[in-house]
Write a structure and sequence with these properties.
The chain has a single domain, classed as Farnesyl Diphosphate Synthase (Orthogonal Bundle), CATH 1.10.600. Helices cover 76% and strands 3% of the residues.
Length: 310
């Protein structure tokens, strides 16, 4: 990871002073860096970490960072991981161009090193992430979405990137397409579990305010606990729930009442069951590989995904 950070930093360099300043800011506020870890551990599981693995990890981070910068513009978000977002500090126009710069840097990194398999995996992931976002926007207007649509949205929006990390890592270490496909599925299952866990945070106790946040409800996002509650509700209750989300999503009392209803209806328990199913499917795929340090570490990574506190 230390060597990767050096390589990633050099891949962000620019002769334009403003861009260089923004790139320095991006490096300074990096997160947990789970995605590069998935790349390196997948490579170790399938062979050895090599130059292609470092290119894969840098490619993932460049394209992922590009999508985050663009997401903040789309969501009009002023903060990311406790720091000001790029658009908050330098406005939307510059943020969009920075995202484009990061995207082109990733594409060039792959092309200049003839890493076309990695480029294919990542380009497919970015395409699906965009489709997932647009599908969510389209379905959010109706609110009453099906569980199958929810899973398709989170598979595309969140899981495809983690799947791409694992597939890129495997592809850098082996030419066996079946193994690469297995690692892609492993990452997809881990990603689905990760997103369901994120959905559950909205209903968990927030020590700062002494109650659940209800942010997803306020933003009219249809997550699994809510979708399940709607699916088992009668017409009267369903109408009341949709009315709260549509017209009273900023009313703290009504949001708190809806959270209580979701809990009473077994919405959280149902979501936890589905999260554990994806987690188990990921573990089952791992069991096909020989025992090694990388396998143990990947097990710990996906355990962390479902047990994390934030």
């Amino acid at each position: 990871m230390l060597l990767f950070e050096k390589k990633f930093k050099s891949s962000l360099s620019s002769k334009v002073p403003l861009l260089d300043k923004i790139m320095h800011y991006i490096i300074k506020r990096k997160g947990k860096q789970m995605r590069p870890m998935f790349v390196f551990l997948s490579a170790k599981l399938c062979g050895k970490v090599n130059d292609s693995s470092y290119i894969a990890a840098s490619l993932i981070e460049l394209l992922h960072t590009a999508t985050l910068v663009h997401d903040d513009v789309v969501d009009e978000a002023n903060f990311r991981r406790g720091f000001f977002s790029i658009n908050a500090l330098w406005k939307n126009k510059i943020a969009v161009l920075v995202g484009d710069f990061l995207l082109s840097k990733g594409l060039l990194l792959a092309v200049e090193n003839n890493e076309f398999d990695l480029l294919k995996i990542m380009s497919s992931a970015v395409k699906q992430m965009s489709e997932g976002e647009l599908l969510q926007i389209e379905k959010a207007r109706k609110l009453d979405i099906q569980e199958s649509v929810y899973f398709e949205i989170i598979r595309q929006k969140t899981a495809t990137l983690i799947a791409a990390c694992c597939a890129c890592g495997a592809s850098s270490a082996t030419e066996d397409k079946k193994i690469v496909k297995q690692m892609h599925l492993f990452g997809e299952m881990a990603g689905i579990a990760f997103q369901i866990k994120d959905d559950l945070f909205d209903y968990s106790h927030n020590p700062k305010i002494g109650k659940p946040t209800g942010i997803d409800i306020r933003e009219q996002k249809m997550t699994l606990p809510l979708i399940y509650t709607l699916s088992i509700s009668d017409k009267v209750q369903k109408k009341k729930i949709i009315n709260t989300i549509k017209n009273h999503n900023n009313d703290s009392k009504k949001v708190t009442e809806l959270i209580a209803l979701v809990k009473e209806s077994g919405g959280l328990d149902y979501a936890i069951t589905k999260m554990n199913e994806s987690h188990q499917r990921a573990l089952t795929i791992l069991e096909k590989f020989e025992d090694c340090e990388a396998k143990t570490a990947l097990k710990k990574m996906i355990d962390f995904v479902i047990h994390r506190k934030q």
